[in-house]
Amino acid sequence: MGKIYTPATAAVGVEEVLRLLEGRWKLIILFHLFGGQVQRYSDFEKLIPGISQKMLAQQLRQLEADGIVSRKLYPQVPPKVEYRLTEWGQALCPALDAMLKWAEKRESLLSAHDGDATQESS
Amino acid sequence: MGKIYTPATAAVGVEEVLRLLEGRWKLIILFHLFGGQVQRYSDFEKLIPGISQKMLAQQLRQLEADGIVSRKLYPQVPPKVEYRLTEWGQALCPALDAMLKWAEKRESLLSAHDGDATQESS
DNA sequence: CAGTATCCCGCTTGATACTG
DNA sequence: CAGTATCAAGCGGGATACTG
Predict the structure, then answer these.
(1) Is the dihedral of CA A84, A103, A18, B62 positive or negative?
(2) CA–CA min distance B52, chain A (Å)
(3) B113 within a domain of the structure (yes/no)
(4) Contact A83/A32 with Cβ under 8 angstroms?
(5) Do B22 and B7 contact (CB within 8 A), yes or no?
(6) Would you tell me which residues 19-38 of chain A have a C-beta closer than 8 angstroms to some C-beta of chain B?
(7) How many angstroms separate the CA atoms of B87 and A109, rounded?
(8) Which domain holds residue A84?
(9) Which GO terms describe its molecular function (chains A, B) (predicted)?
(10) pLDDT class for A1, splitting at 50, 70, 90?
(11) Which residue of A88, B1, B112, B117 is surrounded by the most CB atoms within 10 Å?
């Protein structure tokens, strides 16, 4: 049973989703967690070349605050922290797949009818 | 026939899609074009309160350059311009729907098991 | 190990004015 | 009607250094 959307509310709804996914490093982080993978802070530093500690921490905090990633702290010295997707975070897959499918569709549509110039802008 | 994705390439693929959709006004513009709607430049100015002429033109140019929106110019005085979705642009709907579905899923997952505190961060 | 704290820069956005 | 041009502000992100 889906909600009812007007042009304005639907745009707002999608914008809220995009805000959760925006951020230079969030998608790379997420794709390293899909499939039930569990990563530690230092794992991400190795898996994602170029990311700074500041950005890694910031993006993880935001994903956690948004309920997409869960953080599990083992209170020991030295500290150990594990990151994994929440159930909702895992449910993101179909939406991302749909985007990839849409991107793939581009080429097939362009090649399907490539000679259809109907007075486009110069 | 879907492509094959690694964590890195899938992230890049989704990022490319997000880049097409990012921009303060693009989604509002798109939702005013879904369903075969056709709009003129001045229509958007009325439909989208608060948008400046600069931003409207810029977002439309980008959507056009990305192949999502098509621009049809009638060479007359005063000029008349119509905007509509390309076939590929219309094909965006399922992807946006998937995002909205995911957002809706959040509440159902939260209410389903709301007492599952497994040592989250303080 | 797993972070915080500062400083700084570029890019997007907004405000305003002008035009074929 | 349908734009373009210019200038300034705000925010995300990068570099670097420090800490329980």
Answers:
(1) positive
(2) 18
(3) yes
(4) no
(5) no
(6) 21-22, 27-28, 30-32, 34
(7) 8
(8) 24-121
(9) DNA binding
(10) low
(11) A88
Give the nearest chain B residue to A48 (CA atoms).
B8
User: Which secondary structure element, helix H or strand E, spans residue B73, and what is its range?
Assistant: strand B69-74
Q: What is the pLDDT of residues A52-85, one digit of tens each?
A: 999 999 999 999 999 999 999 999 999 999 999 9
Give the tens place of pLDDT for each residue, B38-59. 999 999 999 999 999 999 999 9
Amino acid identity at B27:
L
Q: How far is B86 from chain A (nearest CA, A)?
A: 10
User: What's the mean per-residue pLDDT of chain A?
Assistant: 92
Number of domains forming the structure of chain A = 1
Q: Is the CB of B52 under 7 A from strand C?
A: yes
In the numeric block, which tokens belong to residue A12?
Answer: 């707002």
Q: What is the pLDDT of residue B120?
A: 45
Domain annotation covers residue B7: no
Tell me, what CATH number does B107's domain have?
1.10.10.10
Chain A hits for B31, Cβ within 8 Å: 7-8, 10-11
pLDDT greater than 60 at residue A121: no
The answer to whether A93 faces chain B, any CB pair under 8 Å, is no
Q: Does some domain include residue B40?
A: yes
Residue type, position B41, single letter: Y
